[in-house]
């Protein structure tokens, strides 16, 4: 069994990441199982930080969407509840979104409710993106997500556009760089134990039990 000391897990994720969507419920389950012996801190990571990021990675925005939806289908097989709707997203006519708007939305939520609200907003945006297949680069979609998790919308909108929130996002990205995180999802326990990928719950349990 674990000792009484708290293990801090930093969960690096991106709103675009289908594998993060699959892993999130398992991290939440882990937190519930261990109670106050585990603290999960949510950290942002940008797979495609710029509006043209998808095109730059894949050669064109059209090719990017095709390849990404292939990842969605694979991640949906990994997801315990199969919530990722690649076929629905394939029918949408908007460009595949980039990371930054959704990440700023999560950091703005964090200003109102700390780490717990970051988690709620992140989960709600991921649902909007991969289950509902809405355009999470659209401010109105993000605003609805903020309303759904109970944020003060006027304050959230101000924070979303603020230098403070941009700085908070930059700090997360720099922290990822310091740890050598170059893909998501990645978990970092106590600043040194790394676990990458959408691991099964049993793997998370074994990983935690090895950290003493």
Overall description:
With 212 residues, the protein is an alpha+beta fold. The protein is 58% helix and 10% strand. A 4-stranded mixed beta sheet has the order 2-1-3-4, sandwiched between helices. α1 links the parallel β1 (7-13) and β2. The longest helix has 31 residues, at 100-130.
What's the helix and strand layout?
Layout: E1 7-13, H1 18-34, E2 38-44, H2 53-58, H3 61-78, H4 86-90, H5 100-130, H6 139-148, H7 153-160, H8 163-179, E3 186-189, E4 193-196, H9 201-210
Parallel strand pairs: 1-2
Antiparallel strand pairs: 1-3, 3-4
Summarize the structure.
This protein has 212 residues and is an alpha+beta fold. Helix content is 58%, strand content 10%. The chain has 9 helices and 4 strands.
From the structure above, extract its key features.
single chain; 212 residues; alpha+beta; four-stranded mixed beta sheet; globular
Instruction: Give the class from helix and strand content and strand pairing.
Output: alpha+beta
Number of strands: 4
Overall 3D form: globular
Number of helices: 9
Which spans have pLDDT < 50 for at least 5 consecutive residues? none
Beta-strand content: 5-15%
Largest sheet: 4 strands, mixed
**Roughly what is the average pLDDT, rounded to an integer?**
96
Helix content: 55-70%
Terminal Cα span: 9 Å
